[in-house]
Amino acid sequence: MAYDPSDPRAALAPAPASPAGSNAPYTPAHYARFYETAPQEDADGIRSWYVRGRNFIIAYSEVTDGAVLERHDQPDEYVLLQPEAATTVMVTAGAETQTVAGHSVCFIPPGDSRLVIQGAGRIVRLFTPRSTDLAALCSNQAAFAEPDPRIPPLQNWPMPPDGFRIRRYSLEVPKEAGRFGRIWRCTTFMVNYLDPAAGPRDLRKLSPHHHDDFEQCSLVLDGGYTHHIRWPWVPDMTAWREDEHEYCGAPSVTVIPPPSIHTSRAEQAGQMVDIFCPPRVDFSRKPGWVLNAADYPMPSG
């Protein structure tokens, strides 16, 4: 890890030195620039793009007033992210219905659910590949046909003590010294709605780091970011990969695999969201970092 002292992540515990699967071939990063491609779905007032990582699916949708999105027999909890205050969603899950105001993150229970859009805009939904119908739509689905020995099989985190229900959290959270971004978790995902970039990131204060056993998903909602990624050298030179310096505007998704060293630089004012599936233990152990920690307990041990 190489963080500037002003970065709250500088206080994180160091990663293990010898990760499981460290001799496995490297897997590539994935870049999905939705502004360059046609959506996988375009009907009934909804245009949706789908891309995935090992454990997650990102569904980015442009929606019109009155549009409806439904899930039947959804196998696990999923996430609704509403970046815009003007887009409200009427959420029904089982016998419960809530009007979910915009500029929020909402966790939706397994089973049947229905989203009715009120006000045109954009929404993002986060699923696991257990939603096989959505996995089949992903632009990079073929890349995940084989398992990655570095990444353990997906296991859900514990259920909330009071059971599943629609849970909405406002993104309007003031910045706090010592806290990294704005983090929420559920049984399947951790969402870090990073503090918005006011302009280009200081070249002297980047944050190159790596993860040994999980991917990072970086969702760009506004502005543009350059993702810098490199892979460690190993004795087998045929496994080496060239460094990557990929500019991704909005909207886009970058899937960053382990154990690549990576950092992202805002090139202008913008908004990025980091997504992890399942939630991160190290972030969860930091007091005050997970804003809804009381609703979703950590695994025992």
Explain briefly what this protein structure is.
The protein is mostly beta strands.
Could you characterize what this model shows?
The chain is mainly beta and 301 residues long. It has a single domain, classed as Jelly Rolls (Sandwich), CATH 2.60.120. The protein is 3% helix and 37% strand. The strands form four sheets. It has a seven-stranded antiparallel beta sheet, with no helix packed on it. The protein has a six-stranded antiparallel beta sheet with strand order 1-18-15-20-14-13, with no helix packed on it. Strand 7 and strand 8 form a beta hairpin. The longest helix has 5 residues. It is globular and about 55 Å long. The two termini are 25 Å apart. 36% of the residues are buried.
List keywords for this structure.
301 residues, six-stranded antiparallel sheet, mainly beta, Jelly Rolls, 2 helices, 20 strands
